[in-house]
């Protein structure tokens, strides 16, 4: 089985994430997309994140009706900050019958060379790259696949600011995620 791993803070998960994941599973050779909720991204301030269990729960709510999507908390049980190569290695050892691919936005290629063991990620796993707004570096490599997907310029930052300002986030979030956030008064 070929699995696309979609890493993120998902603070919160939004329609942009869901659309990209759906394109990946629908229009490529991926059998499933696993949403890897990162407890601490080494490039982000951990104080700005909701608790990891809340972020995982929002992902679970958002993908509950899609049989090819799965949420995973694998990085919750690993050393922090979590590095992609360590998670890929762990999942490969745990699921030897699966082939894992990394799903990333084209904007990540601009600093991909700074990732821990980026060459190993390319050689052993490979990348499925979707377009992002702005200048996206092109990485020529046999293990990099560019996927034509809608360019969704929705950010979790915009959603958090909108909620804090009392603006509607309808249509930016799965309705169950919106309800979860509003019930718990997150981002206020």
Describe this structure in words.
With 188 residues, the protein is α/β, with parallel strands linked by helices. Helices cover 33% and strands 16% of the residues. The chain has six helices and six strands, in the order βαβαβαβαββαα. It has helices at residues 15-27, 52-63, 84-94, 118-124, 156-164, 175-184; strands at 2-8, 32-37, 69-72, 99-105, 127-130, 144-146. A six-stranded parallel β-sheet has the order 3-2-1-4-5-6, sandwiched between helices. Strand 2, helix 2 (52-63) and strand 3 (69-72) form a beta-alpha-beta unit. Helix 2 (52-63) packs antiparallel against helix 6 (175-184). The longest helix has 13 residues, at 15-27. It is globular and about 45 Å long. The model has no long low-confidence stretch (mean pLDDT 94).
Helix content: 25-40%
Radius of gyration, whole Å: 16 Å
Number of helices in the DSSP assignment: 6
**Main beta sheet: strand number and arrangement?**
6 strands, parallel
Uncertain segments:
none
Silhouette: globular
Range of strand content:
15-25%
Strand order of the largest sheet: 3-2-1-4-5-6
Number of strands: 6
Structural class: alpha/beta
Residue-averaged pLDDT, rounded?
Answer: 94
> H/E series, N to C?
EHEHEHEHEEHH
State the separation between the terminal residues, measured CA to CA: 41 Å
Describe, in short, the structure shown.
The chain contains six helices and six strands. The protein is of the alpha/beta class and 188 residues long.
Characteristic terms for this protein:
alpha/beta; globular; 6 helices; six-stranded parallel β-sheet; 188 residues; 33% helix
């Amino acid at each position: 089985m070929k699995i696309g791993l979609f890493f993120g803070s998902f603070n919160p998960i939004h329609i942009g994430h869901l659309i990209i994941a759906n394109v990946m599973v629908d229009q490529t050779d991926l059998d499933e997309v696993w949403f890897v909720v990162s407890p601490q991204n080494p490039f982000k301030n951990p104080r700005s994140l909701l608790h990891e269990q809340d972020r995982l729960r929002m992902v679970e709510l958002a993908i509950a009706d899609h049989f090819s999507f799965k949420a995973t908390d694998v990085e919750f049980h690993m050393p922090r900050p979590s590095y992609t190569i360590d998670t890929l290695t762990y999942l490969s050892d745990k699921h030897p019958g699966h082939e894992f691919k990394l799903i990333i936005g084209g904007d990540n290629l601009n600093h991909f060379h700074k990732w821990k063991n980026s060459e190993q990620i390319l050689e052993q796993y490979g990348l499925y790259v979707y377009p992002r707004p702005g200048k996206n570096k092109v990485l020529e490599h046999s293990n990099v696949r560019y996927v034509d997907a809608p360019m969704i310029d929705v950010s979790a930052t915009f959603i958090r600011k909108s909620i804090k300002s009392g603006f509607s986030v309808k249509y930016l979030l799965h309705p169950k995620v919106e309800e979860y956030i509003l019930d718990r008064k997150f981002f206020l």
